[in-house]
């Protein structure tokens, strides 16, 4: 006999809510699993399969701080497996507290791709959509939402083409980065990855499959881009391509003055004929910095570079690339020299290198391999990613780099500006309300050491940075946002909260999807 809604409420919901709230407040690792998976779910006819044992991998992510066990993991053999499963859960209505999370490569930081007691869909297993490149005036590639960007790149390069906008690391899935934004050093020119998508196939929280684009089902299209997985699961994406260069000139220079550094960055991102990639990072109290660069970069002036002392100072590194093909080397060098002549870096710190386009784009993977070999990849990552309006970046830099942080030994701190005009305000992505804003990413690792609790130290530092931003009303927005209360989420979305909530009600009315974002909670039966 099926339990009545009230019975279900009494026996399950209260416990779930208590557990979930405790988890949110404490932020500590807990394990939840639901022994009451309806038997009907086990009887679904699928091309792939559901697993009810060995689900622990789906409770792990790159952040390594939250582990919420699902009841089952779906390894979809087709798009219709995902639709069938969600439709089934939708039809159970309030008689089930089951939720569904798409899991890309599990590179979230705070359990965003987890589904406590629910179903995790392992998107990388999605079969049936082979990457397909279409050349022509507006070339594009059709890929599965579970494809890794590195595979999208390999496939496109076979046709001499490549996507225009990237993330720094390519072992992330298309669906995962499109649910956030996908930002890297090309974003100033091409916009984030969500600005470079022609079409999506989406499965909503009701299990319906829709094709959408700027012309067709446009509301759903824009809702899903930057939508934190709230409105639908991306099963296919059509990504804009451009001719791929063969080579990249990769340049790093140092500044000791933040004003010159940021003014030069801003000049470069607004210049007509400029670099193809512009980023930057902050170095606080590091020793032997330039020595570390020598394995991959050549100093322009080795003698002067060897006399440069980085110790104990706050330095700002501007990083740029210029794409080229071997037969254009001379003209590329002239353009680079012209651009460099407009910059105010410390002359002895000019370092350059030439690498293939693939080597450049896949650069972080080289570090991953090294860190894995030392057991330093699968450690807690208490990352904090902020978007800071240009008008407040100097105040932010003075306080955060000059006072709150004593060093940058726990991981890189990225800092670079992007142009708001390259973002489409119809998407769900939330950005500061200024024409230019900075991405500031504190990418800390916190390996366990016996003498020092690095994780606690970094979390305290992150809190201080957030408190400063709130107190000084910096107008900051979190990227890859993490909040635990509805009030915080409303503040994050600001005037856009209403449309976000309306879209949720339209496309996922029972709040089945992406529970790990902790924005909405599954609708309870109305008795
Ligand atoms: P997951 O973490 O698995 O999922 C992320 C969210 O999207 C979850 O809520 C999930 O439920 C949802 N989701 C996943 N797949 C789908 C889908 N197909 N449809 C709908 N929803 C889905 N980000 C940048 O913008 N720029 C960077 O340069 C960058 N560098 C990074 C470097 C490293 C080393 C790491 C670990 C992360 C980096 N990121 C960067 C962050 C990255 O964009 C996020 O981690 C993102 O979550 C992608 O990871 P994923 O594919 O593993 O998705």
| Global shape | globular
Proportion of residues in helical segments? 25-40%
How much is the radius of gyration in Å? 24 Å
On the 0 to 100 scale, the average pLDDT is 91
Beta content: 15-25%
Number of E-state strands: 19
Q: Tell me the structural class.
A: alpha+beta
The set of bound ligands, ions and cofactors reads: flavin-adenine dinucleotide
Explain what you see.
- By secondary structure, this protein is of the alpha+beta class.
- The chain contains 17 helices and 19 strands.
- The chain has helices at 5-26, 39-42, 79-92, 149-157, 174-178, 187-190, 218-224, 258-270, 289-293, 302-307, 329-341, 357-361, 363-373, 393-404, 454-471, 486-493, 497-507; strands spanning 49-51, 72-75, 100-103, 119-122, 132-134, 140-144, 161-163, 197-204, 209-213, 232-243, 247-255, 277-284, 298-299, 314-324, 351-356, 384-389, 413-419, 436-442, 477-479.
- It has a nine-stranded antiparallel sheet with strand order 13-15-11-14-12-17-18-16-19.
- Helix 14 (393-404) runs antiparallel to helix 15.
- Flavin-adenine dinucleotide is lined by residues 62, 101-108, 112-113, 123, 145, 167-169, 172-173, 175-177, 179-184, 228-229, 233-234, 364, 480, 514, 516-517.
């Amino acid at each position: 006999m099926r339990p009545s809604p009230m019975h279900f409420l009494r026996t399950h919901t209260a416990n779930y809510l208590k557990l979930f709230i405790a988890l949110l407040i404490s932020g500590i690792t807990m394990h939840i699993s639901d022994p009451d998976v309806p038997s009907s779910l086990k009887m679904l006819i699928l091309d792939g399969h559901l697993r009810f044992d060995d689900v622990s991998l789906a409770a792990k992510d790159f952040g390594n701080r939250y582990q919420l066990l699902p009841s089952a993991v779906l390894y979809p053999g087709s798009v219709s497996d995902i639709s069938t499963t969600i439709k089934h859960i939708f039809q159970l209505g309030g008689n089930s507290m089951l939720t569904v999370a798409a899991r890309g490569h599990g590179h979230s930081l705070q359990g965003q791709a987890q589904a406590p007691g629910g179903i995790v869909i392992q998107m990388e297993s999605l079969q049936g959509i082979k990457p397909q490149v279409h050349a022509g005036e507006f070339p594009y590639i059709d890929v599965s939402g579970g494809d890794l960007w590195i595979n999208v790149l390999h496939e496109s390069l076979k046709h001499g083409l490549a996507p225009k906008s990237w993330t720094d690391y390519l072992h992330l899935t298309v669906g995962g980065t499109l649910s956030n934004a996908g930002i890297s050093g090309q974003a100033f020119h091409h916009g984030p990855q969500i600005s470079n998508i022609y079409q999506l196939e989406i499965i909503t929280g009701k299990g319906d499959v829709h094709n959408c684009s700027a012309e067709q089902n446009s509301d759903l299209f824009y809702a899903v881009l930057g939508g934190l997985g709230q409105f639908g699961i991306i099963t296919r994406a059509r990504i804009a391509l451009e001719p791929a260069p063969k080579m990249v000139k990769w340049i790093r220079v140092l500044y000791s003055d933040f004003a010159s550094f940021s003014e030069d960055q801003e000049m470069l991102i607004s210049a007509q004929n400029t670099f193809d990639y512009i980023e930057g990072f902050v170095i606080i109290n590091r020793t032997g910095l330039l020595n570390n660069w020598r394995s991959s970069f050549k100093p322009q002036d080795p003698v002067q570079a060897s006399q440069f002392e980085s110790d104990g100072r706050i330095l700002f590194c501007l990083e740029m690339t210029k794409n080229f093909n071997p037969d254009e080397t001379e003209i590329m060098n002239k353009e680079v020299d012209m651009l460099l002549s407009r910059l105010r870096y410390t002359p002895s710190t000019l370092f350059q290198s030439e690498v293939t386009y693939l080597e450049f784009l896949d650069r972080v993977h080289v570090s991953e391999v090294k860190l894995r070999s030392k057991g330093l990849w699968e450690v807690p990552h208490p990352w904090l990613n902020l978007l800071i309006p240009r008008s407040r970046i100097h105040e932010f830099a003075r306080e955060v780099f000059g006072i709150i942080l004593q060093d940058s030994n726990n991981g890189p701190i990225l800092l670079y500006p992007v142009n708001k005009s390259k973002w489409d305000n119809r998407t769900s992505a939330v950005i500061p309300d200024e024409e230019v804003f900075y991405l500031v990413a504190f990418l800390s690792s916190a390996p366990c050491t016996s003498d020092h609790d690095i994780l606690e130290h970094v979390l305290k530092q992150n809190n201080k940075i957030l408190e400063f931003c709130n107190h000084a009303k910096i107008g900051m927005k979190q990227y890859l946002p993490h909040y635990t209360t509805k009030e915080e989420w409303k503040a994050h979305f600001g005037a856009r909260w209403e449309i976000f909530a309306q879209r949720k009600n339209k496309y996922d009315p029972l709040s089945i999807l992406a529970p790990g974002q902790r924005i909405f909670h599954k609708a309870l039966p109305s008795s």
